Amino acid sequence: MDKRLIRSLMLLITFTILLILVILRFDSILYLLVQLLGLLRPLIIGFAIAFVLHRPCGFFRRLYDRAFSQTKAAGAAQPLAVLTSYLVLFAVIAFVISLVVPQLINSITLFAGSLSSYINNLQTWINNLIDRYDWSFLQSYDFSTLTDTVKNLAENALSMIKTTLPQIFTLTGTLISGLVTGFIALIFSVYMLSNGDKLLSQVRRTLSAYLPEKVTAPLFRVTRLTADIFSKFLAGQLIEACILASLCFIGMSLFRFQYAPLISVLIGVCALIPMVGAFVGAAISAFLLLMISPMQALWFLIFLLILQQIEGNLIYPRVVGSSIGLPAIWVLAAITVGGGLFGFIGILVSVPTASVFYTLLKHDVVRRTKEK
């Protein structure tokens, strides 16, 4: 019998056995995969941080290369670029926290202090409706009891907190574990940024040594395509979010809306989430303004709707452009499937991932069409 045929049969039998094992032991295999991902979480987070900072680090590297090209400090360009990238990242995070947290606390305090006033206004509004439209069935309800209801909820919440004090130790352990994971991820991301080129070269050389060229060539091509699409998508989303946040802040300042810095940052951050981010940002922002004035919340929604139209039709196509290369229907499908399978992370990475598969499929269709 032909050796090639025997090898094909062995591969088919092996694949069939593995497929049967996966089907029969799917729960166990899924559990092992979840445990493995948990162990690799610091490395995955570190790789994600390094990927986000790759372009800024390259930008700073070119600046330092030009500055130190004629000096003995030329070798310090890469470490300085990595250090500058992390300093910028930490500065941005600190700026956002210092901008958002105080206003958020102020908003909650204002809402708690004005709760009785809101309930009284609601009672007055209901009474006006009763007088104007003869909605007498509402008159039997005493809306002042809402205050007692809220107070009871607060007391129950305090009681619940007291009963869950023993869980503080568990929470402390989780916090320490999270800090350790974050520290390991940070160290790994620094290593990736500092020695990423050398590491990729070693991986490429190792794969080329053990795998045939017909396997490594398409593998390297798909890897380059994936990195390029994810990088362009991330850069475009960040630039578009910054532009949208700036326009939102300018517009809210001109129209004298409350919480302009807080809401602008919130809108910008939510803009990083494809498609659904706009609705999430609008809902949270409108709720914050609703605590102050329902009319102001309504006018803000109208303002944001106009701004979203400008952003969607003028800014987004020019900033992100054709970097995604994915029709709108597939974007929606990717977000739905990604969010259903992997939650928030799935929503973030589903669009560029779907774009990679879509691009590969499109290239394969073109190639097969030409061959015919």
Q: How does this model look, in words?
A:
The model has no long low-confidence stretch (mean pLDDT 78). Among the domains are: 42-99 and 179-210, no CATH class; 109-163, no CATH class. The relative contact order is 0.06. Helices cover 86% and strands 0% of the residues. The longest helix is centred in the C-terminal third of the chain and has 44 residues, at 328-371. The two termini are 33 Å apart. It is globular. The chain is mainly alpha-helical and 372 residues long. Helix 3 (41-68) packs across helix 4 (77-113) and helix 8 (213-254) packs antiparallel against helix 12 (328-371). The protein has helices at residues 3-24, 26-39, 41-68, 77-113, 115-133, 145-163, 168-210, 213-254, 260-270, 276-290, 294-319, 328-371. The protein has twelve helices and no strands.
Main sheet makeup: none
Percentage of residues assigned to helices: over 70%
Number of strands: 0
Mean pLDDT over the full residue set: 78
Structural class estimated from helices and strands: mainly alpha
Radius of gyration: 28 Å
- From the N-terminal CA to the C-terminal CA, the straight-line distance is 33 Å
The tally of helices reads 12
> Uncertain segments of ≥5 residues (pLDDT<50)?
none
Strand content: under 5%
Shape: globular
Order of helices and strands: HHHHHHHHHHHH
